[in-house]
Amino acid sequence: MELVFLFATVATVFVSFVDGAGYLQIRPPSANQCCYEDINQAHFSYDRDFCEGPKDWCRVHPCWTTCGSQRRQSPININTKETRYKRYSRLKFDNLNTRVLANIKNNGHAPDFDVDGKFDDEITLCNVPRRPKDKKYNFAQLHVHLGRDENKGSEHAIDNTFKPMEAHMVFYDSDYDGVGEAKPKRNGLVVLSVMIEVYGNNHENNECRVDGTCKVRFAKKLSKLMEKYYEKVRHYPMESFNPDFFNLLGFQRSNSCTNNNCGRTPSPDFIEERCEKEEQNARSVRVTEGITPLDVLPYDTNQFYTYAGSLTTPPCYETVQWVVYKCPIKVSSKASIQLQALYDLI
Ligand SMILES: [Zn+2]
Question: Where would one find the signal peptide in this protein (predicted)?
Answer without folding.
Answer: 1-20
